[in-house]
C-alpha cells in the first residue's frame, strides 16, 4: 500500500480494471508492435499523467483551469526547440527540460498569484484567455516555434527505431530504440501518477480538498489558501510540462495542433470528468476509455453511419459520421456531470463507501 | 451629527465616471501616435463598430451572470447558431440580398435577424431547462455542463451543415463606404454602431426604468423576498436567459456579416474575446461590459495599426492592466 500512498482503488471492479489497463500498457510494445497500437498505448500513458495533473486542480482544489494545454505545450516545445537547434543529443534533451520546466512553473506561479487571489470564477476565464494568447504566440513566432508547421526533430541515437538493443532471436521480442522510448514514457508517467497520488493523500492534499469544500472555512482554520492553490497549480504545471516533453519525444514533433490546441484542453476535461474527478485513478480509466474510443469507436461509427445512409434515414448518417464522435462523447460528458459527478471511479467506489459529497 | 428625517430622499450612490471616460481618453491619446487624422477617424469608427458588435454578443453573458449567477461557457454556441440560422434566410434569398435597394436588403435582413434571435432564444430555453436548471448555485458544474453543451452544439452544427466555411456576402447597399473629405467610413460599420447603441440603451432602459427591470434587480438582491411578494422569479430569470441567448444569436449574424463568413468554430473563437470583455467590465455589469467591449476593440484596432505583432496579445495585456487597477473589473457588481 505504500506505493499507492494508502489510497487503494477501494473497489474490486476498479482494481481489476486498473490492473488490466496497466498490464496491457506494460506489455503493449511486445504484444502489439504495430505503429497504431503503439501510438494509442503511448497516448494513453501520456494523457493519464496529464489528466492526473489536471485532476489535482479540478478534482482536488475545485478550480477550473483552461491553461493546462499551455503547460503541456511548453514541455513539448521545450524539447522540440532544443533538439531542433542543438541537434540530436542528450544535452539537448536536458537543456529543453531545464528551460521548459522552470518556465512552466514560473508561468503557473504568475497565473496563480494573479488570478487565484481574485474571484474564483475569474480563474477559469483568465486561464482561458492566457492560454489562447499563448497559442497565438506559438503560431506567430515562427522563427522560434516553426509557426503552424511546428518543429520536427531527430532523436538521440539510442531512441531511434533503427537502434536494435536486443535482437528478436534472443527473447522472441525485438527491443529497439522505439520500444525503449515507449518504456521511458511508460515509466515516467507511472512515476508522475504515483507522485501525484502521494501528493493528494498527504496533509497538503487534504488542505486542497478542504479548500475545495469550503475555501472560507479553510482560510479561517489558518491555512493560507492562496499559497496552497498556487503550489498545486505549479505542481500540476510541472507534471503537464513533463507529459508534454514525453509526447514530443514520442512524436519527434511539436506543433500547435498536437500540443496547444483548445481541443486538447476539452479532451482533458472530458477525460477527467468521465474518469472521475478527485480520484486520481479516474485519470487512468478516463484516458484509456477516451483514447480507445477516439481511435476505435470511429470505425464502429462509420459502419453505423453507412448502415443509416443505406437505410435512407435522414440526418442520422451525418450524426453518426466518424468525425462526429465528439458529439456523442460531449453528450456522455454532460450526462456524466449530471448523473455521476464523480465519474466512473466514483461510481465504482460508491458501493463500498458513502459518496464524499459532490464536487462543487 | 446629522439628522435624517423619514421623508429625506435616500442618499444616492456615488457615480463612478472614470471607467466610462477610459475609451475617450484612449482614443484621444492615440491621435498623436497615429499622426494622420483620417486614419485615426477610420480606426476609431472601426473600433466603435467592432466594440458594439462584441457588446451585443457579450451582454447576454454578463446579464445571465449578473442576474442569475450562472456562468455560461457555452454562450459562444448561441452566437454560432444565430449565424447559421441567418444563412437559412440569407442564402436562398441571395438575389434580394444583392439587390441594389436598401429597402429590399433590409426586408431580407430583418426576418433573418428575427428568425436567428427566435431560434437562439428558444435554444436558450432548452439549455436552461436541461443543462443549467440542475446545477444552479454550483459554479464548477455550471462550467462543466455548459462547456459540454458547447462541444455538443459545435459538433451538431458540423453534422447539420458540414465542416466547410459558408461565405455570407454583405448586402450590396451596405457595402462600400461614405467618403467625407479624405475620411472613408464603411457603411456597415456605421450601421453596427447604431444597432449596438440602440441595444445598449434598450437594455439600460429596461433594467432601470421598467417594472420588469425593477423585479430583476430586486431578484438579484434578494430572491426570497421577491418570491414572497408573489412574483415568479424562476420565470423571470428564464426570460433573462432567453433574452441573453437571443442577443448572442443576433450578435452572431452581425459578426458573420462583418466577417462575411460563417463557421461552426466561430462560437468557440469568440468565447475568449467575450470573456475578456466581461472580465474587464466586471462580471455582471452591463455598463462595464459596454466599456470593456469598446476598449478591447480599440486596443485591437489601434494596436493592429501601430504595432501589428503586439496586437496578437493586446487583449491579454489590456485585461492584465485593468485587473491590476481594479481586480474585480471596471464596474464591480457589489452584491456578491
Automatic annotation (TrEMBL), chain A:
<keyword id="KW-0812">Transmembrane</keyword>
<feature type="transmembrane region" description="Helical">
    <location>
        <begin position="69"/>
        <end position="86"/>
    </location>
</feature>
<feature type="transmembrane region" description="Helical">
    <location>
        <begin position="92"/>
        <end position="114"/>
    </location>
</feature>
<keyword id="KW-0472">Membrane</keyword>
<dbReference type="Pfam" id="PF02653">
    <property type="entry name" value="BPD_transp_2"/>
</dbReference>
<keyword id="KW-1133">Transmembrane helix</keyword>
<dbReference type="GO" id="GO:0015658">
    <property type="term" value="F:branched-chain amino acid transmembrane transporter activity"/>
</dbReference>
<dbReference type="GO" id="GO:0005886">
    <property type="term" value="C:plasma membrane"/>
</dbReference>
<feature type="transmembrane region" description="Helical">
    <location>
        <begin position="268"/>
        <end position="292"/>
    </location>
</feature>
<feature type="transmembrane region" description="Helical">
    <location>
        <begin position="180"/>
        <end position="200"/>
    </location>
</feature>
<feature type="transmembrane region" description="Helical">
    <location>
        <begin position="12"/>
        <end position="32"/>
    </location>
</feature>
<feature type="transmembrane region" description="Helical">
    <location>
        <begin position="325"/>
        <end position="346"/>
    </location>
</feature>
<keyword id="KW-1003">Cell membrane</keyword>
<feature type="transmembrane region" description="Helical">
    <location>
        <begin position="221"/>
        <end position="248"/>
    </location>
</feature>
<dbReference type="InterPro" id="IPR001851">
    <property type="entry name" value="ABC_transp_permease"/>
</dbReference>
<dbReference type="InterPro" id="IPR043428">
    <property type="entry name" value="LivM-like"/>
</dbReference>
<feature type="transmembrane region" description="Helical">
    <location>
        <begin position="38"/>
        <end position="57"/>
    </location>
</feature>
<feature type="transmembrane region" description="Helical">
    <location>
        <begin position="121"/>
        <end position="143"/>
    </location>
</feature>
<feature type="transmembrane region" description="Helical">
    <location>
        <begin position="299"/>
        <end position="319"/>
    </location>
</feature>
<protein>
    <submittedName>
        <fullName>ABC transporter permease</fullName>
    </submittedName>
</protein>
UniProtKB/TrEMBL annotation, chain B:
<dbReference type="InterPro" id="IPR052157">
    <property type="entry name" value="BCAA_transport_permease"/>
</dbReference>
<feature type="transmembrane region" description="Helical">
    <location>
        <begin position="40"/>
        <end position="65"/>
    </location>
</feature>
<keyword id="KW-1003">Cell membrane</keyword>
<feature type="transmembrane region" description="Helical">
    <location>
        <begin position="236"/>
        <end position="258"/>
    </location>
</feature>
<comment type="similarity">
    <text>Belongs to the binding-protein-dependent transport system permease family. LivHM subfamily.</text>
</comment>
<keyword id="KW-0813">Transport</keyword>
<keyword id="KW-0472">Membrane</keyword>
<keyword id="KW-0029">Amino-acid transport</keyword>
<dbReference type="InterPro" id="IPR001851">
    <property type="entry name" value="ABC_transp_permease"/>
</dbReference>
<feature type="transmembrane region" description="Helical">
    <location>
        <begin position="77"/>
        <end position="94"/>
    </location>
</feature>
<feature type="transmembrane region" description="Helical">
    <location>
        <begin position="306"/>
        <end position="325"/>
    </location>
</feature>
<feature type="transmembrane region" description="Helical">
    <location>
        <begin position="186"/>
        <end position="207"/>
    </location>
</feature>
<protein>
    <submittedName>
        <fullName>ABC transporter permease</fullName>
    </submittedName>
</protein>
<feature type="transmembrane region" description="Helical">
    <location>
        <begin position="270"/>
        <end position="299"/>
    </location>
</feature>
<dbReference type="Pfam" id="PF02653">
    <property type="entry name" value="BPD_transp_2"/>
</dbReference>
<keyword id="KW-1133">Transmembrane helix</keyword>
<feature type="transmembrane region" description="Helical">
    <location>
        <begin position="143"/>
        <end position="166"/>
    </location>
</feature>
<dbReference type="GO" id="GO:0006865">
    <property type="term" value="P:amino acid transport"/>
</dbReference>
<feature type="transmembrane region" description="Helical">
    <location>
        <begin position="17"/>
        <end position="34"/>
    </location>
</feature>
<keyword id="KW-0812">Transmembrane</keyword>
<dbReference type="GO" id="GO:0005886">
    <property type="term" value="C:plasma membrane"/>
</dbReference>
<feature type="transmembrane region" description="Helical">
    <location>
        <begin position="106"/>
        <end position="131"/>
    </location>
</feature>
